[in-house]
Amino acid sequence: MIKNRFQYLAPTSVEEAANLLAASPGDTEVIGGGTWVVVEMTAGDRDPRRVIDLKNAGLRYIREEKGAVVIGARATYTDVVRSAAAAKLPALVAMAAGVTGGGQLRNRATLGGSACYGNPSSDVPGLLVGLGATLTVRSAGGTRSIAAADFFTGPLRTALQTGELLESMTIPVPAGMKQGYYKFKLAESSWPICTGTALVGADGSATVTIGAANCRPVTVTGSASDLDGLARAAEAAITSPFSDTLADGEYRKQIAGAIAKRAVKAAV
Amino acid sequence: MSDTIHIELTINGAAKSADIDPRLLLVEAIRDTFGYKGTHIGCLTGDCGACTIELNGEIEKSCLVLAASADGGEIRTIEGIAPDDGGLHPVQQAFWDEYGFQCGYCLPGMLFAALDLIESNPTPDEAQIRHAISGNYCRCTGYNNIVTSIQTAAQRMAAAK
Ligand SMILES: Cc1cc2nc3c(=O)[nH]c(=O)nc-3n(C[C@@H](O)[C@@H](O)[C@H](O)COP(=O)(O)OP(=O)(O)OC[C@H]3O[C@@H](n4cnc5c(N)ncnc54)[C@H](O)[C@@H]3O)c2cc1C
Ligand code: FES
Ligand code: FES
Question: Which residues of chain B have a CB within 8 Å of the CB of A2?
């Protein structure tokens, strides 16, 4: 059992959730799926006085809107894999299907939770940056939009400010471009060591975002017909390599080029 | 600070309710409040799968969920896999026949992952089976017999259709 007492709240709308958060943001934890925050509370690494569970807040949806796919913060990886709207984004679906921890994990863990967690060695940050997503965050005062490239500011850091929660992620469907997602890991059950999200235009222009290798995702552009050039650019873009128990940052930097090539080849 | 929360659940078809401490994990409620000890605790980090249950039709790791979050839910535990007639489910029978377990600690995760896989894919190949059980640790078998068990279960279930 979690050590210290807290009040459990399950608001029934996102506005109510934001108001509850505003009341006492410093000692409150938000639960999306809980696959990270509940573990940290059990281990005693987080010690909130209040917990806001978003399960009833109406944020579990995936829908198509004006040429984009809008993903509610509570949508799970499994929701993405099953969604007809998300099928327009094969890179997103490939990412969601490849998250480890088994079906048990994908059935509960949310994309929004992963985004707010902001762990560099995750799938979601690089994917959101790579597909040019915009995140909508809400506070008691209303909503604001943040480009994914600005949202992930460093290891376990995001542009979310005190009193803000994530409401949704909007990913434009890249018209006329092929998308690819490639994840490198060394064991079946491992979190990613390096990821590549590629967009390839009909003219061969390629944009690749490398995730999990740098403290924040990095994006490079080039040509699908010059993969070696793209690879060199990707490696050079890793200016603050990220190290954790899975892999050293220098190793991640060294493989970033190869992963960029594979992401372009994965684009279908 | 409110001390308890009232929750109502269905576990293996039986209606259950309790006033619980919000700090209680779902796995603790299932085991200690409601007495279904077949659901195991291995890690409390979401890695091992020994706490796997089915919640509202989806397999989940019950150490990652506050009991309060599951209020109103329909739960199936490992005790609810076998049919009422006292026999074994075909997946359990296959694990028995193929030596798919030794101590059995990992079985909640292995059996539910197998059931989940065969439901969506009645003829899984080895790679698909290994991917499906990748959220579970087994410290006894070395996994090969588990893969064989799931292959056997799928074949028998397909043949019985
Ligand atoms: C066994 C296992 C395997 C895993 N494998 C992978 C993997 O392969 N790839 C990978 O990328 N990740 C992996 N993960 C990490 C996994 O926890 C995240 O990917 C998951 O998506 C987090 O989502 P959640 O909803 O459970 O987050 P939560 O635990 O609910 O929340 C995470 C953080 O975000 C905050 N938060 C959640 N939602 C909101 C919101 N709407 N607004 C504001 N703050 C919010 C919480 O307060 C917390 O700080 C794995 C985890 C486990 C346990
Ligand atoms: S006890 Fe839940 S996954 Fe190990
Ligand atoms: S049989 Fe002992 S852990 Fe799997």
Answer: 23, 25
pLDDT attached to residue A44: 97
- Which phi and psi angles does B102 have, rounded to 5°? -120, -75
Q: Which of A117, A146, A185, A195 maximizes ligand 1 atoms within 8 Å of its Cβ, making it the mutation to test the pocket? A: A117
Q: Are B77 and B11 in contact (CB under 8 A)?
A: yes
The torsion defined by the Cα of A81, A83, A88 and A90, in degrees rounded to 10, comes to 0
Q: Is A102 touching B (CB cutoff 8 A)?
A: yes
How do residues B67-97 score in pLDDT, each as one tens digit? 999 999 999 999 999 999 999 999 999 999 9
Name the pTM for this structure: 0.97
Write the secondary structure of A38-85 as one string of H (helix), E (strand) and C (coil).
HHHHHHCCCCCCEEEEHHHCCCCCEEEECCEEEEECCCEHHHHHHCCC
Candidates 2.60.130.10, 1.20.1250.20, 3.10.20.30, 3.40.1050.10; CATH matching B5-80: 3.10.20.30
Q: How many CB pairs under 8 A join A and B?
A: 110
Q: What is the DSSP letter of A98?
A: T
pLDDT tens profile A94-126: 999 999 999 999 999 999 999 999 999 999 999
Separation of B143 CA from ligand 1 center, angstroms? 28
Instruction: Give the C-alpha separation, B152 to B30, whole Å.
Output: 30
Domain B90-160 adopts which CATH fold? DNA polymerase; domain 1 (1.10.150)
Does residue A244 sit at the B interface (CB-CB below 8 Å)? no
Residue B92 phi, psi dihedral angles, 5° rounding:
-65, -40
Helix (H, G, I), strand (E, B) or coil at A95: helix
State the Cα–Cα distance between residues A247 and A250, nearest whole angstrom. Answer: 8
Please indicate whether residue B95, judged by its CB atom, sits closer than 6 Å to ligand 3. Answer: no
